[in-house]
Write a structure and sequence with these properties.
It is a single chain. This protein has 118 residues and is α+β, with helices and mostly antiparallel strands. It has a single domain, classed as Thrombin, subunit H. Strands 2-3-4-7-6-5 form a six-stranded antiparallel beta barrel. The N and C termini lie far apart (37 Å).
């Protein structure tokens, strides 16, 4: 399965100097949507940090590394769906890497990221 291979392409614990983008604190409710056993599974949680390349979360259910998901978050009264893959996890803390974002979504994430405190 390609999504599992994507997760394995990266080191398990990247340091701040290894990252393309700085993480910034970002605390909002999220829903993580994924297929499980032929059904759609919706896992609630909260975000911890954001970069234009991914999102750190705490979820109510531990998902396996490599799981492809759609992360839904609220921003200014609108829902934003972000395709991602679970890149690493430690217990219920998960790090997702965004995948296949549109140019408009990436621009919006970069603007949002720039507005967040360091």
């Amino acid at each position: 399965m390609r999504s599992a291979a994507v997760a394995e392409d990266f080191p398990m614990h990247a340091t701040a100097s290894d990252r393309r983008w700085q993480r910034r604190s970002f605390d909002v409710r999220v829903r993580v949507n994924t297929a499980h056993g032929g059904r759609m599974l919706v896992v609630p949680g909260r975000s911890r940090d954001l970069s234009p390349g991914g999102l750190g979360t705490v979820l109510t259910l531990a998902l396996p590394r490599g799981t492809p998901v759609i992360i839904t978050l609220q921003r200014r009264g609108r829902e934003l769906d972000l395709p991602a893959v679970l890149r690493h996890r430690q217990g219920f803390r998960c790090g997702f890497q965004f995948r296949a974002l549109t140019a408009a979504t990436l621009r919006m994430l970069r603007r949002l990221h720039a507005q967040l405190p360091d």
